[in-house]
Amino acid sequence: MVTQEQIPSLIDSTAYDPSGDKIGAIKQVYLDDRTDQPQFATVHTGLFGLRETFVPLDGAELRGDRLVVPVDKSQVKDAPRIDPDGSEGALTPTQVAELYRHYHLPTTPSGTRDTYAADVDRDTDRDRDHGGRRSEHGTGRTDDAMTRSEERLHVGTETHEAGQVRLRKHVVTENVQKTVPVSHERVRVEREPISEANREQAFSGPAISEAEHEVTLHAEKPVVEKEAVPVERVRLGTETVTEEQTVGGQVRKERIDTDER
């Protein structure tokens, strides 16, 4: 049970549901007009924390800077849209009854539930006298002006998994051609006249005879060898690229017309 003495601590706390899911930061606390006990609190929800939603404090428990409320996060997300700034510091019985119905709150011993479940056609002055009021501003009163509200579209981004890329190594075969110079020997007939230098070899044999002389020829041929050598290292990295996308949505706004009678 949250008490008035805990209100300053509530403003700095964060709301969680019974399963431990974070709901949002507490902004304002509303009191029961008749008992002055904390009845509702507003919590910042939504993608940017810009939406302010009412949560019940009956059965809530303050644990340090965590306020555990007796309703699930999904219930808070679907709660009735009531503009705290448009309530001028107070909730009407019709608004409180709507919150009670949404959160399935039981009838309170003080009869507050019955009072706030009043018919929507009840006189406006009685609505002013019995609605929940915001604790930091005292009891609010309605003037002769009408508040017009409208929804605003807030667009943000969130990161999600878009796919996976895998490195895979496999072997392919390709033809490689290279040009290499090769050499070979060929016969060349050399003739030299008889001279004093070779006369002895020239007359060493018979004058007329048959003879043979053989020369071995040599030639180069290409030889191919293969070896495996590392050539580079490949790894996967990521980089962020930014592009523009257009998104849209429907927003509601109130219009005020005059009706003369």
UniProtKB/TrEMBL annotation:
Residues 6-75 form the PRC-barrel domain. One of its GO terms (cellular component) is plasma membrane light-harvesting complex. Residues 237-250 have a biased composition (Low complexity). Residues 103-163, 235-261 are annotated as: Disordered. One of its GO terms (biological process) is photosynthesis, light reaction. Residues 119-163, 251-261 have a biased composition (Basic and acidic residues). It holds the Pfam family DUF2382. Residues 146-257 form the DUF2382 domain. Coiled coil: none annotated. InterPro entries: Bac_photo_RC_H_C, DUF2382, PRC-brl_dom, PRC_barrel-like_sf, Stress_Response_Assoc. PANTHER family: STRESS RESPONSE PROTEIN YSNF (PTHR38463:SF1). This is Conserved domain-containing protein. It comes from Cryptosporangium aurantiacum. The lineage of its organism: Bacteria, Bacillati, Actinomycetota, Actinomycetes, Cryptosporangiales.
